[in-house]
Amino acid sequence: MKRSSITRKLQLLAIAIYCAGILGACSTQTTEAEKALTAGTSSSKELPVIEAELTAPPLVPAPITRKHPAKVVVRLEVTEVVQKLADGVDYTFWTFGGSVPGKFIRIRQNDEVEFHLMNHPDSKNPHNIDLHAVTGPGGGAASTFTAPGHETVFSFKALNPGLYVYHCATAPVGMHIANGMYGLILVEPEEGLPKVDKEYYVMQGDFYTKGGFGDAGLQPFDMGKALDENPTYVVFNGSVGALNGDNALTAKTGETVRLFVGNGGPNLVSSFHVIGEIFDKVYSEGGSKTNLNVQTTLVPAGGSAITEFKADVPGTYILVDHSIFRAFNKGALGMLKVEGPEYKDIYSGQIMDKVYLPEGATIQEMPLAKAPTAPVAANKDQRLALGKAVFVQNCQACHQAEGQGIKGAFPPLAKSDYLNADVDRSIGVIAHGLEGQIKVNGELYNSTMPKLKLTDEEIANVMTFILNNWGNKGGEVTTQQVAKAKASNKH
Ligand SMILES: [Cu+2]
Predict the structure, then answer these.
(1) Run of H or E residues at 306
(2) Residue 252 C-alpha to ligand 1 middle, in angstroms?
(3) Distance from the CA of 136 to the center of ligand 1, in angstroms?
(4) In b/e form, how buried is each residue of 300-325, taking b as 16+ CB within 10 angstroms?
(5) Please, which residues bridge with residue 108 across strands?
(6) In angstroms, what CA-CA distances link 111 with 152, 401, 464?
(7) Using 50, 70 and 90 to split pLDDT, how confident is the model at 13?
(8) Domains in the chain and their CATH numbers?
């Protein structure tokens, strides 16, 4: 009895030593990286270390009161989640911290930021982050390419004060941003920002869905609409109504309100306006220069503005993108409810309403849209030329210029055993999209290929182009073959 228990203990000990050995070997890389991190930021040794408080919109972390720089540790987790885009409409958002826009980060000029980017193991795609507050290549993008289930770390010094956008910059960049991968980081000037009563976080973004505005269900991303810069939705804080009704921003009369406004795009610039208010002060483009008495401020895609005003009279103030169809027909509308006593000398309310029709009523007509006609290939040479154009516009961002793909993220189309083994199956992939695990040239891929809005003719052309390039097996795919393959390869 005793001897066997001793043997077991010895075995466990041996295993423990063995494991420690392996761990030591495996973790050298991390230790080296950590050493480099502290070595590179020599002054960080003297700086106090602070864990950053991050907030989901429309909330903002408390103003910074410290009078000295610090080493601020930021931990941001990327998740891919299905959430509401509008009533009855869901969308698979890719997020920085579970919300769109992502978590608000607040630091002070000359802080040293140790930035951790975690990509949740359930994610289907790799992601990274480009913070416009960073001085350095790619704003951090090159140092933070993070596969699902991984964490990357880099550090930067916040040299310039201002309100900065951050976003994902993984290919195809437009698609990652269109799926909600953006947020704001505020670098407070050393002297801080003037005190106000209320601070809020509002960020605009445009969304592209297969279905029209309000079409119910889980809506996939529409690459065609994104390329045309023709969004189905334009919203504040990630969904239609995110700042309406019970979710409205609030203030009391007499309070000063500061809005940190960002625009993730990916495409539109915003004409940000609050109906019934005048911005007493705007930090134009999120920089240090202020403009006074502004009605509408331009917020570029990938840019910001800080607007401030005093809530003088009670009522509901409507936040809009003053490109006004976006507000009333695509969702770019939010609310600020101001409660408190009335000041009739500033705003009287309605005094009179009577009919005035000098020219009689008119009926407006909507112009009819003309359907464009796409070119049709007459022979294989034309098919190759047209197919190349389809590839460059629709596929290259992911599968790369020579069809070589990106290991672990986008499978190769060059010399692809998967593609050459079954052309009809690949036509199905292009027509219907693909999700789940596949093996291409011995490598596993478990990601998402979006459904693209292509005609049968375009699929025939791009498939013919791919088959006749990069060491693939050749041949011609016709529109008829595409129609047949599509029907038999639904998954
Ligand atoms: Cu991303």
Answers:
(1) strand 303-310
(2) 39
(3) 19
(4) ebbbbbbbbbebbbbbebbbbbbeee
(5) 188
(6) 20, 40, 54
(7) very low
(8) 49-190 (2.60.40.420), 201-339 (2.60.40.420), 380-488 (1.10.760.10)
CA of 487 to the centre of ligand 1 (A): 32
DSSP state of 239: S
DSSP H or E stretch at residue 114: strand 112-119
Q: Which residues make up each annotated binding site?
A: 127, 132, 167-168, 176, 181, 322
Q: Whole-model pTM above 0.70?
A: no
Mean pLDDT, range 450-471, rounded to an integer: 92
Backbone dihedral region for residue 217 (phi beyond 0: left; psi -120 to 50: alpha; all else: beta): left
Read off the pLDDT of residues 50-74 as tens digits, 9 standing for 90 and up: 999 999 999 999 999 999 999 999 9
What is the average pLDDT value for the chain, to the nearest integer? 87
pLDDT at 360: 53
Confidence bin at 106 (pLDDT 50/70/90): very high
Bridge partners, residue 363, by sequence: none
**Closest by alpha carbon to 473, among 425, 413, 393, 427?**
413
Task: With H, G, I as helix, E, B as strand and everything else as coil, classify residue 3.
Answer: helix
* Closest CA relative to residue 243, chosen from 179, 333, 308, 309: 333
Start-to-end Cα distance in the chain: 60
Pairing of strands 71-86, 49-51: parallel
The Å distance, Cα 288 to ligand 1 centre, comes to 30
Short-list 273, 233, 272, 277, CA closest to 251: 277
d(CA 291, CA 280): 8
Phi/psi at 137 (5° precision): -55, 130
CA of 308 to the centre of ligand 1 (A): 32
What is the CA(172)–ligand 1 centre distance, in A? 9
**What are the structure tokens assigned to 377, written together?**
């290939």
- Which of 477, 449, 450 has the alpha carbon at shortest distance from 461? 477
Going by C-beta distance under 8 Å and a sequence separation of 6 or more, which residues neighbour residue 107? 52, 64, 72, 74, 113, 133, 158, 185, 186, 187, 188
pLDDT-derived band at 348 (thresholds 50, 70, 90) equals confident
Please tell me whether residue 55 adopts helix, strand or coil conformation. Answer: strand
Q: Is the pLDDT of residue 44 over 80?
A: no
pLDDT score of 40:
45
Token pair, residue 350, equals: 């309605």
Residue-wise pLDDT for 267-285, tens only, equals 999 999 999 999 999 999 9
CA angle 135, 141, 143 (to 5 degrees): 90
Q: Ligand 1 center to residue 124 CA distance, Å?
A: 10
**Torsion region of 26: left, alpha or beta (phi above 0 gives left; psi -120 to 50 gives alpha):** alpha
Ligand 1 center to residue 37 CA distance, Å?
Answer: 24
Binding residues for Cu cation: 127, 132, 167-168, 176, 181, 322
Q: How many Å lie between the centroid of ligand 1 and the Cα of residue 128?
A: 6
